[in-house]
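Friendly challenge for the regulars: who can give me the structure tokens for this chain first? No prize, just bragging rights.
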Amino acid sequence: MSCPRRFRLAVVALVPVAAISLHLAAALAQSSTPAAPAASAPAASPSPAPSPSASPTVAPPAASTTPAPASSPTPAASATPTPPPAGPAPVRTADPFGEETTLTPKTVILVKGTANWDTAFDMLLESLKTLSAFLDKQGVKPSGNSMIVYTSTDDTGFSYLAEIPVDQEPKNLTKAMSMGKSPEGKALKFVHRGSYENMDNTYEAITNHLDDKKLEAKDTFVEEYITDPLKTAEDKLVINVYVPLK
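First reply, four minutes later:
Bragging rights claimed.
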């Protein structure tokens, strides 16, 4: 954000002295007779000599003085690119906030887990990574985005279900895994962008929205990861948050 500096170049015009020396030589040539004093009259003629100095021929170059570069303000015009950054703003304002929707149950493979708030995201990733690796080994492709369903929370931590939608039931499930259905019914949809650590701000906004609308939510909520949390930088996450209503 530094302002560019502008520099000006000064041009100095030099008047040739040779012309004056030629006039003096002519005067000396005429000084062969005592009439030289009269030659002083021609000396007055040198006064026309200044006319050469008036020869604006030298001045024109001066006229072409680099003021033309003053047109350099055009670079300033290049400052106009600043407006584009404003573009992304409308995209974010288009994100749903408290949009009413209906969740459709999906067949999912899931694993239960518990975590404290300090290591929350690491634990969630570990559960999703376990499910993803198992599906890869079975050759089963997910049929939707991975989800985290929070079943209970308190000041120290929470219980959750890590879920991945599938169209077919994988074989040889581990003891920790099971098949099930994702939440269904009426809910409000919110969108979070950025790191998991900033989720508190999103949930605070959700709580305020529920209070303002006098809406009562169930004791659970769902996070749908639009961007794959296993492959996306944490600060680039996009998460749909669904709050089921009573």
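The two ends are 52 Å apart (CA to CA). Residues 18-77 form one domain. Your move, everyone else.
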